[in-house]
Amino acid sequence: MDNNISTRLQQITATIPSGVQLVAVSKFHSAEAIQEAYNAGHRIFGESRAQELKQKFEILPNDIQWHFIGHLQSNKVRMLLPMVSLFHSIDSLHLLRTVNEEAKRVNIVANLLLQVHVAKEETKFGFSPDEIIDVVKSTIIKELHNISVRGMMGMASNTEHTPTITTEFEQLFYIFSEIKSLNIFQSFDILSMGMSHDYKLAIQCGSNMVRIGTDIFGIRQY
Ligand SMILES: *Cc1c(COP(=O)(O)O)cnc(C)c1O
Q: How far, in Å, from the CA of 186 to the mean position of ligand 1?
């Protein structure tokens, strides 16, 4: 792998179809590394911890679009709202309500994705496939006027077994299409799935937003 962030970014961008957005996942990487990707023309960055995002937000250019991709705690929503352009990881009705309430307080509409859990192991976060259909059909969600549900986010199992990953991505795409066809949300059109090791498969299965960290910035130092 090339050591240069802008070169890697270019190589990845070249393999991604034009309708697919790239979120450069910069968690655990320095502001300098992000600045390097920024200088190469990239603007969308993903972070998974509230404090870390805030620190970077304060020193980096203000036309960066910050996406929050980690598990979101209710008590971090107020702090994050003015900084985050898209929340990927909304995984409970409680969180939906909290984001709505906080957005209402400051008179904005928050963009978010519903996280759906299909993978066998790994994270326990996310709505189950059954749960998500109930939630989007519920009357409660229609009353939340300060959120815009823009789509869905999901992860496949962390495995080398391609058929498993493909099945899970296909399942996510199926749920996404089903919700979209219900016409509940005005602009439900983002399907965020695919990371460094599986984004090509994800795109084949219908992803239009990939979240890539390691392949751009290298191995994370925890
Ligand atoms: C860390 C992370 C990624 C990026 O993973 P890489 O394997 O480094 O590309 C993508 N999505 C989520 C939700 C993450 O937490």
A: 28
| Dihedral angle of Cα 165, 122, 222, 44, to the nearest 10 degrees | 50
CB of residue 98 inside a 6 A radius of ligand 1? no
> pLDDT tens across 88-142, in order?
999 999 999 999 999 999 999 999 999 999 987 656 789 999 999 999 999 999 9
Amino acid making up residue 88: H
Q: Which long-range contacts (CB under 8 A, 24 or more apart) does 42-45 make?
A: 42/9
Centre of ligand 1 to C-alpha 21, Å, is: 15
The set of residues, in sequence order, having a beta carbon less than 8 Å from that of 24 and lying 6+ positions away, is 9, 34, 37, 42, 44, 45, 46, 212, 213, 216, 217
Best mutation site among 25, 72, 125, 165 for ligand 1 pocket (most ligand atoms within 8 Å of CB): 25
The model's pTM? 0.96
Give residue 151's region: left, alpha or beta (phi > 0; psi -120 to 50): left
E strand or H helix at 191, and its extent?
strand 190-192
**Nearest protein Cα to ligand 1, atom 13:** 69
Give the residue from 45, 55, 53 showing the smallest Cα distance to 72: 53
Query: Is residue 77 helix, strand or coil?
Result: helix
In the predicted structure, residue 5 carries a pLDDT above the cut 80: yes
Counting from 1 in the atom list of ligand 1, the atom nearest the Cα of 25 is 4
- Which of 89, 122, 94 is closest to 193 using CA atoms? 89
Q: What's the mean pLDDT in 25-31? A: 97
